[in-house]
Write a structure and sequence with these properties.
Blueprint: H1 9-41, H2 44-65, H3 69-75, H4 78-98, H5 101-133
Helix pairs in contact: 1-2, 4-5
Length: 138
């Protein structure tokens, strides 16, 4: 069995900080690229590939960020879930009405999925609270 040396606390703190900065930077860069940053620099197929790659990078980094305990606790609060449900639902409707063609439909569908996910979280937390307060059956 291999013995692993524990990392001293200051080095672990610095390593965690650097990892967090890189993760958030990847998320921001992915969002910027997918939101139109690639259009300013690239043309044609390269622009399309960069936009899709930026979206994938933002999605993967965002998924990693949401697994952090503080972020997970914040996203699980009923107030946050209600805000996400209402805001994303309204944004989905606005995107469908205001944008033309496939971009409007895809944008509205994606925002609608986020809104439905928040609604699912509200229903699940309500059921969980109801089970906690339900009296025990004899």
């Amino acid at each position: 069995m291999k013995h692993v040396k524990p990392v001293p606390a200051p080095f672990a703190t610095v390593r965690k900080f650097v990892a967090d900065v890189l993760l958030w930077s990847a998320f921001a860069a992915g969002l910027a690229t997918s939101a139109g940053g690639a259009e300013a620099v690239l043309d044609g197929t390269q622009k399309t590939i960069a936009t899709i790659a930026g979206g994938v990078v933002a999605l993967v980094a965002g998924a990693r960020i949401t697994k952090k305990p503080k972020i997970k606790a914040f996203l699980g609060r009923p107030g946050t879930l209600w805000f996400l449900f209402l805001f994303n639902g309204a944004t989905a409707v606005a995107m469908y009405v205001a944008m033309d063609g496939v971009k409007g439909i895809i944008g509205a569908a994606c925002m609608g999925l986020v809104s439905l996910g928040a609604a699912g979280g509200l229903v699940a937390s309500r059921r969980h609270r109801a089970e906690l307060t339900k009296p025990a059956q004899p």
